[in-house]
Amino acid sequence: MPVTPVVASTEADRRRAFDQFTQSRLDREYRLAAIILRDASEAEDAVHDAAIQAWLHWPDLRDQDRLDAWFGRVMANECRARLRRRKIGPLTFSEPPDREAPDALSALHEREVLHAALAGLDADHRIAVVLRYVADLTPKQIAARTGSREGTVKSRLHYALREMRASLDAADRAWGGRG
Amino acid sequence: MNDERLERELKGALLLDDPGQVQDELRFAVAAITEAPGVASRTARRFSGLRMAVSVIAVVAVISSSLALIVYFRGGTGSGAASSPTASALPSSAAKAGWMDLHWSKPVAFGDATVVDDVVSWKGELWAVGLSTAGRAAFWRSADGAAWIRVTTDDAVFAGANAVKLLAKPAGLVAYGSTAKSPCSGPNAATMCGPDHFAVWTSPDGTTWTRSDTHVFDSANVSSLTSGPTGLIAVGDLSWTEPQIWASSDGKTWRAVGVADGEFSNAHFFVVRGWSGGYVMGGSVGGTEPSSSGTLSPAGAAAAWWSSDGRTWHAADVNRIGLTGVAIQSLHVGRDGLLAIGSEWGGQAATGWWSADGRVWQTLAQSTIMTASGGIIPDPPSDTVFDDGTRMVSFAPDGPDGQLEGWTSFDGKTWSGLSFTALAGSSLPYWPGNASVQTFGKAFILPDGLLVTGQAPGNPPKGLAWRVIAS
Predict the structure, then answer these.
(1) Do domains A11-85 and A103-178 have the same CATH topology?
(2) In whole angstroms, how large is the CA radius of gyration of chain A?
């Protein structure tokens, strides 16, 4: 039977509960962190440091239902801090092939364009986009995870999508201009 | 581009950075957080790890690998036990995901053992149980896997008994096997034998052992015992038509668990295994009782059950299409799934199943299970697959001369081959069957590789151990 922090009365119980909790969430949090940070190694660091934070605060956590949201917020903060320490590079677009592209190649190029454009988003926008389109969280859930208002999340998503569309339009013009 | 397509493409672009599943190193590092007296951030550890690596290179240049092993084992608690939470204390370098090559050390004598039946990691040392050259149940301990010391025990506690398995628990060790009492008795003793008389022993320190009260096992055939999230679970039967489950929190006192008819109609329990998700049990349903002479009758169908707590059990969904007369006889736990191996009565063909959670079992391709069971059907099949709750390793003979080959897997579905390197002075074991060469016995998974046991020729044969470092 899983041991919850609520009923974990001994040190061994607390360790077991922490272990069960973190191990069951490692895969998901690691993948999300890696996509947010675009660096698997740094994602490992982020998850580990977040888990340390969770363990240090474990005795204070009494509400099992809020554990997930709490840990998610720790993870989001870790990623945000790491992104902000980085120098965000300018948007770059790969050169289109020097020939008329078939559909598949065009689609691949579009994805590359989006990939590069996503790298140009600031930390809060990138986190919102990843949580929305990879983790499939609702704006309300994203708000709970990031400590933001729901309206702010919606605004970030709207802005991010607008940026992505603009990037694609620019790339399309570049394709058209080659002909 | 409409919004829907934009969102789809956006998701695809984001997933270009998807790294897949988390690596073992991180899993162990997170599990180690609760063990460390002062936890340090991973970034800081990485830096200190680099400095340590430089030091280790210098040290290794002048110190033999066996001495390094001693340092390693004394430094960590280690864990070879399945699903052990203490795996967290393992060095991260040992938790690398991929094993490709096994470096075999020179074999060493395993104390005064003739057979080594089981090895567990407990309190920073390796503990083994088996049979001494004098024919007695015996225990050995080792700090490094290279030098084994016989543990002095009270011979009266184990007089005439066989202890064949060890379980490492925080409160001590649990051993089980059979008593000295002959299972063959009565007017037909020459041809009719009952089951061995099951026995359990516990020890707080590995030296002082006490035989548990096992009256609940009287007249029972106990086929398997495991440790899991809520304690120890044993399975077997009181007769062909009376399957039974027993439970204990500490190995000292045991009680029968109610077996509901609905879930266990015509059930036969062969194996039980604890894992992080609870317990899984394998066996068969239906069929007719085999005779004691060993002539096995057509059996029913493979079956499995699962439980979260060891008390309430549910029938699992097992794919039996095209299978008759097959029973699940071994269960293995990997990081990415569970593997069940079964064989026909008589053992002519193996079948494998894979499950993510023990509730639904899918049959594996024959080529998979041929690898997992080593291409042959030993009896029981579990003799060729070993696991520690994260990794599975399988050994088998490569051709008629009995040279070993091996594979490793995290899920039991996908196996990758292992190459072998014999270090100076080493000679690899051969598959059992040739009495004139040293032979393979069992493999026990350690954080950085394996401890392989075997035998050197002799009368009686002498126990051997190889430390095998994976890279």
Answers:
(1) no
(2) 20
Cα separation of B315 and B304, whole Å? 6
Q: How confident is the model at residue B378 (pLDDT cuts 50, 70, 90)?
A: very low
Q: Where is pLDDT greater, at B375 or A79?
A: A79
Q: What is the pLDDT averaged over residues B139-167?
A: 89
Write the burial class of residue A19 (CB in 10 Å: 0-12 exposed, 13-18 middle, 19+ buried): buried
CATH architecture of A11-85: Orthogonal Bundle (1.10)
CATH top-level class for A103-178?
mainly alpha
Residue B381: give the domain boundaries: 101-470
To the nearest whole angstrom, how far is the Cα of B203 from the nearest Cα of chain A? 20
Nearest by CB to A118, which of B14, B33, B43? B14
With cut-offs at 50, 70 and 90, classify the pLDDT of residue A104.
Answer: very low
Q: Is B19–A165 a contact, with Cβ atoms under 8 angstroms apart?
A: no
In a domain, B321, yes or no: yes
The pair of structure tokens assigned to A46 is 């982020």
Within 10 angstroms of residue A17's Cβ, the number of other Cβ atoms is 22
**pLDDT, position B470:** 92
The span from the CA of B16 to the CA of B168, in Å, is: 43
**Residue B387 within any structural domain of the chain:** yes
Q: Which of B144, B108, B114 is nearest to B126 (CA)?
A: B144
Tokens of A105: 């190649």
- pLDDT digit string, tens, across residues B315-329: 999 987 766 667 888
Strand partners, B149: B141
Query: What total number of domains does chain B contain?
Result: 1
B252 secondary structure, DSSP code: S
Residues 38 through 97 of chain A touching chain B, CB cutoff 8 Å:
38, 40, 43-45, 47-49, 51-52, 55-56
On the CB side of B295, how many CA atoms lie within 13 Å of its CA? Answer: 4
Shortest distance, CA B23 to any CA of chain A (angstroms):
9
pLDDT for B369 beyond 70: no
- Domain ranges within chain A, ordered by starting residue: 11-85, 103-178
- Quote the tokens at residue B154: 């009270």
pLDDT at B308 over 60: yes
Distance between CA atoms of residues A61 and B311, nearest Å: 30
Q: Average pLDDT in the A158-177 region? A: 75
Check whether B37 has a pLDDT greater than 50.
no
Quick one: B50 exposed, middle or buried, by C-beta within 10 A (0-12, 13-18, 19+)?
exposed
Question: Which residue of chain B comes nearest to A107, CA vs CA?
Answer: B9
Using an 8 Å Cβ cutoff, are B151 and B131 in contact? no
- B436, part of any domain: yes
Residue B31 lies in a domain: no
**Domain with B145 in it: what CATH number?**
2.130.10.10
Asked if residues B277 and B228 have their Cβ atoms less than 8 Å apart, the reply is no
Mean pLDDT check: name the lowest of A6-15, A31-40, A165-174.
Answer: A6-15
Chain A partners within 8 Å of B20 (Cβ): 31
pLDDT one-digit tens code per residue, B180-200: 665 555 555 444 455 567 899
**Beta carbons of B212 and B254 less than 8 angstroms apart:** yes
Question: Is residue A165 within 8 Å of B6, Cβ to Cβ?
Answer: yes
CB neighbourhood size of A55 (10 A): 19
**Interface probe, candidates A11, A14, A28, A30, chain B, greatest B C-beta count within 10 A:** A30
| Sequence-distant (≥ 6) Cβ neighbours of residue B139 within 8 angstroms | B127, B128, B129, B150, B151, B153, B163, B175, B206
